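Researcher: Please predict.
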Amino acid sequence: MRIAQISPLFEAVPPKLYGGTERVVYSLTEELVAMGHDVTLFASGDSVTSATLAPMRDQALRLDPSVKDWVAIYYRMVEMIYRRKDEFDVLHFHIDYFPLSLFSRQNTPYLTTIHGRLDLPEFVETYSTFANAPFVSISDSQRAPIPNLNWVRTVLHGMPANLLKPLPVKQEYAAFLGRVSPEKGLDQAIQIAGKAGLKLKVAAKVDNADKEYYDTIIKPLIKGNSNVEFIGEINDAQKPAFLSAAHALVFPIRWPEPFGLVMIEAMACGTPVIAFNHGSVPEVIDNGVTGFIVNDIDEAVKALGKVDTLDRAKVRATFDRRFTSRRMAEDYVDLYETLAQPVRRLQVA
């Protein structure tokens, strides 16, 4: 098939450090190429891909402080893709609501995977305006705020089977990976590790939007605290050592997490996950097999005390069965083929 993948422009594909959606787009694109499909990736020009790269600007937005209005850049991108729409059998968007108005008025099959939260009033109003457009959710729980959209399928994320692997190292700490923000609950992770008597290593990004939370809440918790080591952002090459040496990844979220890519990154390294029961967590974690699903700090502390009873080989085996990019790509190809069939209308799945 001739497939267009349309990525966000905030990070390169793949992202050099943090970047969840762009990381998923990369994994999907590379797997589709490996499966023999003709793929064009619309992304920033500093992206690296086996597909045909259609650069929408020279570099990722995050690296360009001169940009004052990123919406204008997305507006232009959607128009440029529209002008090339007849080159493809299907167009797969990963840029939220931006394509919906224009592409709802044309005949090339398209779909939008929604990667973020939907529980904000403005999102409910906007997406509901295009209720017949084909949407893909990344977990069933993600649909809850707008259940009546044309949800054609849930496709759980995947990643390359060989990107992250377990390393034969001793487990010495609890790990926190991802982004420092109130909804991710780093302050709670610090409490959990402290009560469990474990060191916490934090490999995380601090966005400008979350700097106040970091300065006012997190800094006082880690200043002079030898139990917490703040590493900062790490890349994929650093993750196997970081995660393999952890007793568990601590994931004490406070929000309806749509997926949580760091959970499957930990599982790829054989590392169990202790996660709060919000959003996608029950769909990603097999309780008692790949980790423990808990409801509060005290339950998380108890879970850390028994996490070493879990079989790390089974954690990795579950990743291989459920969360590889090949499985994700096969799910999407099945959906693309259904969309591309003339006349047939997708029903809500």
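Model: The CA atoms of residues 276 and 312 lie 20 Å apart.
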